[in-house]
Design goal:
single chain, alpha/beta, Nucleotidyltransferase, domain 5, 2 domains, about 45% helix
Length: about 350
């Protein structure tokens, strides 16, 4: 039985994984660039490309070693072709082409968004579950907020997408504004239960046109105005100093430098983001008759979102990936490549990295 080597370099994670036909993940290695980009408050594309160049060889080598696999065990190499940062994409895709040329293996280009969807399918199958179709697929991360209807195979219909900031991007920008550093989503999610979301009035998005589209810029601006209307310079400076001394503060350390009023703001912000996401999923499920919901991407790690999705408000079961498969990884790329491999759908070396590659 052959294996597929997956390679993922769409943004700031250099990842490689070996996945078997039955979905068994034989290895999954991820090299994070968090320390490189954290000091800048976000991903710097040029630095990301450079770090991928440094990491790609050892990461792929480690994935093959962890899987106890030889090149002869591979049936194909799959790599993310887009969407993402084009410089980052080029590193992984070019390296995959090199392996395929030398080892005479088929090349499979994978859409990053489809990879996130297959991460959930992969986890469900490993748990002995099958996701019923048609399924709604919400992909929410730092770079994407898309809602698809998936009817099987490669049949995706785009129902809605963000018109401005992605959900994860909104988390990161608000966290940076408040002095919680980058990435901010995990910190805000950790602090949200300690605040009262009803104590701060933040607006829901109001848009014309497609009611299934998302928008988070107004919410982000509302948080900015709230901060500007109060004297918060001292507490924000205290949090930044904490980060300078300790890049990984504990919950207790964050609480020491975060007043209750700010905790209430964080709780209100998270409540609005979760509601914005789930009310569109709920509406789409009712309109399409979807039999299940897939929620993937980095924001799928959010505990508040998971609790709300499993609270019974959705008309069908909701599936999330494990935290390791929620953020960018290569196991999801290899998993998405397996159906293409079985259909004999391979790419030649003219395959290009596409920053805005569409899934539907």
């Amino acid at each position: 039985m052959p294996f597929i080597l997956g390679i993922e370099t769409s943004c700031d994670e250099t990842a490689a994984a070996v996945v078997a036909r039955d979905g068994e993940v034989l290895s999954s290695v991820v090299a994070s660039q968090l320390d490189v980009h954290g000091r800048y408050g976000g991903v710097v594309p040029e630095l990301a490309s450079r770090e991928h160049l440094r990491a790609i060889v050892p990461v792929v080598r480690q994935a093959m070693q962890d899987a106890h696999a030889s090149w002869a065990d591979l049936g194909a190499v799959a790599a993310t072709a887009g969407p993402g940062l084009v410089g980052s994409l080029l590193v992984g895709l070019t390296f995959a082409k090199g392996i395929c040329a030398v080892r005479r293996l088929p090349l499979i280009g994978v859409n990053h968004l489809e990879g996130h969807i297959h991460a959930v399918v992969l986890d469900a199958r490993r748990s002995g579950e099958e996701i019923e179709l048609p399924a709604l697929a919400l992909v929410a991360s730092g770079g994407h907020t898309h809602l698809f209807l998936w009817t099987g195979g490669e049949k995706y219909q785009l129902l809605g997408r963000t018109r401005d900031d992605a959900a994860g991007e909104a988390y990161d920008k608000v966290a940076k504004l408040l002095g919680f550093g980058y990435p901010g989503g995990p910190v805000l999610d950790m602090l949200a239960p300690h605040g009262d979301p009803e104590a701060v009035d933040l607006p829901m998005a109001r848009m014309k046109g497609n009611p299934l589209d998302f928008s988070f810029s107004g919410l982000k601006t509302a948080v900015l105005r709230w901060v500007q209307s109060r004297e918060m310079e001292t507490e924000i400076a205290a949090r930044r100093e904490l980060l300078r001394r300790n890049p990984r503060p504990t919950l207790e350390q964050w609480l020491e430098v975060t007043p209750q009023t700010t905790l209430n703001l964080v709780a209100a912000f998270q409540q609005v983001v979760v509601e914005e996401l789930l009310k569109r999923v709920e509406r789409a499920a009712e309109e399409t008759g979807a039999r299940s919901v897939i929620i993937s991407g980095g924001v799928a790690c959010n505990a508040g979102l998971r609790r709300a999705a499993h609270s019974g408000r959705l008309p069908c079961p909701a599936y999330f990936p494990t935290p390791h498969l929620s953020t960018d990884n290569a196991a999801m790329i290899a998993a998405a490549a397996w159906p293409k491999f079985e259909r004999g759908e391979f790419d030649d070396f003219s395959l290009k990295a596409q920053a805005n590659l569409a899934l539907a």
